Amino acid sequence: MQDQQYKNILVGIDGSETSMRALDKAIDAAKRNQAKLYIAQVLKPRQSSIGQSSLGFGVVETDVDENNRLKEQQETIDGIVARVQGEGVEQVTGIVKIGSPHEELAKTIQRENQIDLIYIGATGANRVAQMFLGSNSAYILEHSLADVMVVR
């Protein structure tokens, strides 16, 4: 593995402590390999959208605006990208999408950017959510074509 040269490194972040540790390790790997670093945050879709919905007791106004969610998260990712560039990684791309985090990280983003190494945090969601939803980390480990580093 010492001879392995990575060119395109992806790190998935969700704001959790372990995902931020994964980011730090991905930064180090990008520097060592002089690789391009992709920092991705995939937001799960919200159930409702702008408009009205009926819940049996009347009409409820909903105000989930996906474009605003994307814009807010893109600003956060842009700040992280600037920080990473300041730490010496020249080629950094921030990605914010709405979709299935494990599908996007293990397949779509990987394929679109020829990713050869993925860094992910071991846990992101709380333990109860993991029991019901499954683990993004486990899914990525099982389905990724790239090498995967799980950070604790």
Automatic annotation (TrEMBL):
It comes from Pediococcus inopinatus. It comes from the Bacteria. InterPro entries: Rossmann-like_a/b/a_fold, Universal_stress_UspA, UspA. This is Universal stress protein. Pfam families: Usp (PF00582). Belongs to the universal stress protein A family. Residues 6-152 form the UspA domain.
